[in-house]
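User: My instructor asked us to take a sequence, write out its structure as tokens, and then describe one feature of it. I'm not sure where to start. Here is the sequence I was given:
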Amino acid sequence: MGNSYAGQLKTTRFEEVLHNSIEASLRSNNLVPRPIFSQLYLEAEQQLSSLEAGNRADNEEEEEEEEEEEGSESSSPPVSYQVKPPPEGCCTTDGFCQAGKDLRLVSISNEHIEVPSGFLLVGAKSPNLPDHLLVCAVDKRFLPDDNGRNALLGFSGNCVGCGKKGFCYFTEFSNHINLKLTTQPKKQKHLKYYLVRNAQGALTKGSVICWKGAEFRGRQSSTSTCSSTLFQLPESSGLSGSTSSEPLPPANPSAPAGTQQTAAAVDHIPSTAAFSSAVYNGKESPKQQLMKNNLSALTRPSVLGTLTNSGPPKKRHKGWSPESPSSTETWNLQLNPQASNRIKNDGGSLSSLPHSALVGPASSPMVGSGEPVSVPDNLLKICKAKPVIFKGHGNFPYLCGNINDVIVSPLLYTCYRNSQSLSRAYEQYGASTIQPISEEMQLLLTVYYLVQLAADQVPLIEDLEQIFMRSWRESHLSEIRQYQQAVPQAFPQLPSPITPVTSAQLPWLAGLAASSCNDSVHIIECSYSLAEGLSEMFKLLIEGKLIKTNYVVIICASRNRAIDSCIVITGKYQARVLSESMLSPSDYQKEVNYQLVTGKVETLGSFFSTLCPEGDIDLLLEKFYQENQGHISSSLSASVNKPTAVNGAGTAVCTSYEIERHQIRPFQLAVAQKLLSHICSIADSSTQNLDLGSFEKIDFLICVPPSEVTYQQTLFHLWHSGILLELGLEKEHLTKQRVEQYVMKLDAEAQIKFKIFLQNSMQNPHTLFVLIHDHAHWDLMSAMHSLYPQTELSSGLVDRLLNCREVKEAPNIVTLHVTSFPYALQTQHTHISPYNEIHWPSSYSNGVDLYHENKKYFGLSEFIESTLSGHSIPLLRYDSSFEAMVMALGKRFPRLHSAVIRTFVLIQHYSAAMMAVCGLSQMKNYTSVETLEITQNLINSSRQCPSGHGLMVVLRIPCIPLAAVAYERLYNVRERLALEDNFEIILGNPNSGITIGKHFVEQLKIWQKIEDVDWRPQTYLELEGLPCILIFSGMDPQGESLPRSLRYCDLRLINSSSLVRTSLEQELGLAAYFVSSELHTEKAVVNDVLESDPEKLSSTDNEDEEIVTEGSTSEKRSPMKRERSRSHDSASSSLSSKASTFCTESSPPQVLSNSTEETTNNYERQKQKVDKGAQTTVSKHLPPVTEQLDMKQNIKSTQVSITSSSSPPFSSSSSSSAPAHNSFILQTSQCSMTKASKQPPIVFLPKLVYDIITSTDSSGLPKSSSLLPYHSVMWASSFRPLMSKMMTCTEQSLYYRQWTVPKPIHMDYNNRSEGRMDTFHPRRLLLSGPPQVCKKNKIGKTGAYLQFLSILSRMLIRLTEVDVYDEEEININIKEEESDQYYHQPGDMWPDLESFKKMPFDYTIHDPKYEDASLICSKLQTTNSEDKSKSRRQEDMYTCRQTTRMRLSKYAAYNTYHHCEQCHQYMGFNPRYQIYESTLHAFAFSYSMLGEEIQLHFIIPKSKEHHFVFSQPGRQLESMRLPLVTDKSEDYIKSPTFTPTTGRHEHGLFNLYHAMDGASHLHVLVVKEYEMAIYKKYWPNHIMLVLPSIFNSAGVGAAHFLIKELSYHNLELERNRQEELGIKPQDIWPFIVISDDSCVMWNAVEVDCSGDRKSDYTWTERNVSLKQILQHIEATPNVTHYALIGMRKWSSKTNSAEIKEPFSCCHVHDFIMLNVDLTQNVQYNQNRFTCDDVDFNLRVHSAGLLICRFNHFNVMKKQIAVGGQRSFHIKSKVSDTPVSISPAQYICAPDSKHTFLAAPAQLLLEKYLQYHSHRFFPLSLKNYSHPVLSVDCYLNLGPQIAVCYVSSRPHSLNISSSGLTFSGLLLYLCDSFVVASFLKKFHFLKGATLCVICQDRNSLRQTVVRLELEDEWQFRLRDEFQTANAKEDRPLFFLTGRHI
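Assistant: Let's start with the prediction itself. The structure tokens for your sequence are:
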């Protein structure tokens, strides 16, 4: 028909396109489908051209079709999809269909589902249920084949829930199953997996549905599954790569689209045992396809990689840039010769391994292409190991056949891909010139790396990443430096090109590199595909030609296309370690358990029985038991009865067992104070996330892992700390049940206790709850992830509880995470701010001991330090004979897990060692020297102590089933050997308590002096001194502390194939120790290798330095000179142990050492009886035996002939450090526990772990520090900088926060907020400290945070307390004559007006603040005042006033630091409201005395405008509203309150909300003009009265004066305004309140007069609200007749006599109610700074007005150290330098050259008279019978001079002066009322002095003339003075004279 083949129409294809076009038009209203024929022909042409071009490019049809499919997922804004609303009444729950039937796979996996013929069950993914699959039945014609083709476009499916059939459109079906999509429904997006039945018939997830083209997308975002840690990338997503928001460059552009398969998210990969080899349609089964597709799209790359693809990705993802550089510009890197040498040198110490959380075993990382490769049968049987195939570059073929015997991993592929993604950090250097490392160079570097690995080393992917990174940096060093220039060039000159490695050269170069490694690395070159190379490799394996080969590198290189490669691990040891490392911890336990349950380990037991030529070990044991039954030698068990026997006899008893009392260590106090400082910082921040002022007490809950021992241990610490009693949470009689309320074990029952905690926090908003999460790195699994049925019940509990909404939102809960390993909480998504991290402090800084602590920490870095040459005893060791036996058995039993083999070998060694010590000397050949040393010291330890104390040996067996097997076996051996009373074997299971024999319980009770019959040890700390083997089980330690008697920490069985930094450090943390600093534990060598890295990079993390053992004399050595002691493996020869001779009980054992490790404690093994000849030889070289021999010397038995010749020699650097190297040390009789407690324990490690711990890279960084920090986090990028060895723990935290991201299983994974950077929780803190065993010293973190609770509680109490003045009233002995007369009854509530008028006025000042003021005399007091006044204290002016600390009540006044919910709105700081707007209003009135108009300004917030009256047209302020006298209301206070203040914008007590009990009131702050802005800032919702600027330097008198005058003027205005409303002027309320800014609380005295006699009464004082007091006073009968009303000042020394009369007529201070109407003509003196209230009181009384003090009310005044009168500083006017100026300099002679002072004249006058008035009134000094007459004013003349006040006003009330002679006359600013005739009424002593004070010299002379003073007074010219002011400051002048 004229069409070419490429354009021919196929019927099926035509139907597909037609169907698609119709469906597209139906789905969309605006989308115009492309013409059918355009689709057909364009796609066909593209396919043809693509095939002709080698399938290198994507065809346009696919791209356009996929873009159309993605819709909103392009770079354009998302197009919202309109979901059809569901029918009414139908179910809309996620996971259920509209008929309400459950569709979730986890729910219906075991149900029978009818599947019609031609239909398949598939799993659909719902965006709302990312962790669940929904089961659907779909017609398989609409599903793709294995190549992603031949799927009919459209849909046909049934609902398996309700059975509804015939869904023809996926849109309709997605609505029915409630997918609730926001984008257009596509079956390609949401139908993800085939579902298959497993062997048990349950429906499980099968292979991924391979939709067309999806493989490309999957590969872009693919990485290892959720359990992988090596190559996860940041911002993980649970969906496929299409959800990426960042570019995803294709990794393999040349792969044909038709051969690629998708890689969608794989949540769980079955273990190896679940593999199936069934063939499915000629290919693998769905389960095997699942294995292939394990590169799940969980994560996405964070940066745009520059790879070898010149076109865009198949699907244009969000953020893809068309300008991405093409592969033609890629630079190929040539290996620098120096770099290769460095890599080889470094590689010598790279003994490393992959991490625990690798991907599970998988059959293929990517779907295969090309012809399949058949895996030979019996491969495992022949090779004794499962080869591990690492997919590298390019295509990977299908595997078929016996795929159970191979494991395929994607890790290397991911590493290669990541290493070709340039980090953002390098984008600045220009992508066009600096390109990633080429594929050829990657592979070549990989070969170089594998070549230099030793036979017992395992490759570590992170090593490879670092090699790639260093190579790339060095190759581009010149370009990087060029781009770092300050002035960038517009066209940078390209560097000279480096000769690239071509594909053709690659095999030859790789072969050349591998030629030197003795066949360890084998290179296979293929010409066509990897399939032929794999086939050849399998053939060589079967033929046995790769026995010496550990690694096979298969390269397929061609000129015309990119290279394909893979690496096969064929070494038995390496393959085993790598395959086991791919098991998750739970899979690891399941695998081991499976092998134990199925009896697969029996072959191992039978093999052991054949090893012993003397017969089976069990037979030997039985024989030994029968022979020795009944006559067991007493030597071994003699120590058992020693405690009682020795004590009874009165002989010496071991005194080393001491019970340390609880005490706070300097470290703990420092940490607690740091925590408190951070809490205060949170509270002080402007975010108001923590209002410390609102809390009255502390409560807490400690969360611990579900370990019974840890739980009991925490209870123990809590009980003995006394914190519960200190916080007031419990009473004296504390029970254990009460303590348990404060500790929560994170197990199934935790939710109940936690719910109670939350309820308490909600019910007690004024209690601060501290939620302490101890051992916080345990169980960080996401609660969402833990919903999977296969996870443990307790996993995810931390997330569910501590991250719940209630905890996050509660304003009174602070969460404190406490851990030694904080790394998992320091990711990009962490909840904890870096500012809220607290690190354990350094003990030294620049050589200075910061904390005088007698304990020194011995942690990871010190353990590493001990392994360096120059040290005596390596505390870290490995057992090479044990490792050799394990390796041999691993090859013999390839199907057994190595953990099973290692455990059985170690049990065998311990069993043989126990038998050898008990006399079966032939068994010493079947154990290792290390195990023999441990066992012998353990068994003999109790014999060396008179009380029977012994050593503890910790045998760490993580797998609980294996631990149970070990316990049973060792227990049986111990019983057979009759050692059951010699030492105990304890099975430490985290889920159960401690069980020990009754005999040992009795021993412990005797040692610890416990009398409780039912006592049992509940913590390991209580086992101190007990000789025992503690089998410590559980996958991870959970915070259990070990006692000081721990001597050996056997970690040989830890899971060495799956280590991350946290797990490794917490295992070694079991041995961490605090040792006494007085003991020189070893000869320490300070070195720059470990000066920073192990110390700073271990979790001890002392910020500034390392802890160096004292007494170090060795000089520093460079890293190159330092050599590691090579004799840590004492059994370097397998025959070495046979050379040692062992003795039976009758002849105590003597072990001759052949190396340091054997001899470390050989003196402990040696007894007093030794062979004579040997003793003679040894004694010649024996140094003095001291306690220091315990750890001092490295001993090498060169003089003993049996020393193994294969033992490596000592280095020269170490030979000089040990003087007794060639000596033998004999054991002295000493308690083993005592020695053990003075030195750290010895740790035995697996060889792999030992190599990691002790190796450092070229920079000196320990390898363990560069491991992935935690199994549920991953590196954000391969292109990350290396950690620095100089990093402090703060810098480490920032490093992890930048370079690690949580996986989806991590609880912080979802802690991201789009568009918001701050995702930190404001009330969450992290405390990290060193891992340690508390050893009963309580030096650790538990004691620190308990101490923090203590000081936090004390601080809160302090915050709720104030210092109030507590002083007795003064002058109480000076009584009026009628003082015995009472005018009211004690219980009267209000004064009776008529009775009160009869009360005399008490002139005497009783306020204690005026103790240094002049006494005011009256006629009535003259008779006895002289004697009484002598008793007054003559104290210095600076004497501190007496205060007492008082708890704030709920009615207190507060300063600006108080923030609570109730008063936020009152304060105007509520974040939900805007800062209150205020308006400025002028208010003017005239005052004749000032001679000018006064203009004041009001600042009135909008919320307070209702208190004022404004004119309508212009909103001018007219008046302040006043109530009526007759108004009565409980809701408001009638009297406006004025508070004058200066310098106290922060500390003034202006928040009266609580004091007024929420009542409405008018409160006005009276401030100076220059302080207006600062007061407005702090008190935005307060009314302010701003004084005129002329009063800026005035005192409190001016404020009082203006308040009173303004108030009277306002009263007149209000009377006029309300008179128009018909209200009488006298009905307007005339009172105002003038209050000091330091009044904090108010009290009322309640008097009970119910006694028999009328005079009997009792009284109590209680705190009341200011509202109650004011309303009570305002309700006083005839209240308007009183001019002044006040109250007492509070004192704790108040007695009954003072309140017997409920009302007094006397001076009132501090808090007064002023009747501005009655006092209209009495003014405050606006010039006064001090005593203005006394002066005003005297004026009021002399005017005949009533002053009433309510004695049943009192006010407490807070001591405020700033502001007030303290704000007035007197200084020189000429010099700014602060010079002390004495009061004597405050006055000077007129016209003198005296230094003028910058201070108001009135202040200088008052201060001078206070301290130096005796110069003016010499006769008045202490002459109280002849006071100074003061006219119309009261000035303080000092406490030694008395004054008598008289008023010159007509009709004023004055004392009778008849018969009273005065010693002086004071005339202060006399007005016209003072006349000469007035003065002549008074009589003066001869020689009495006069002082006249006036404003200027002229008025001074006029006053003398007007008052005719010269008639009776003599004046001299020199007696004229002035204040020390400049003329412009208007000084005051005064003249003195003598009475003639």
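For the description part of your assignment, you could build on this observation: The chain has a mean pLDDT of 76. Try explaining in your own words what that tells you about the chain.
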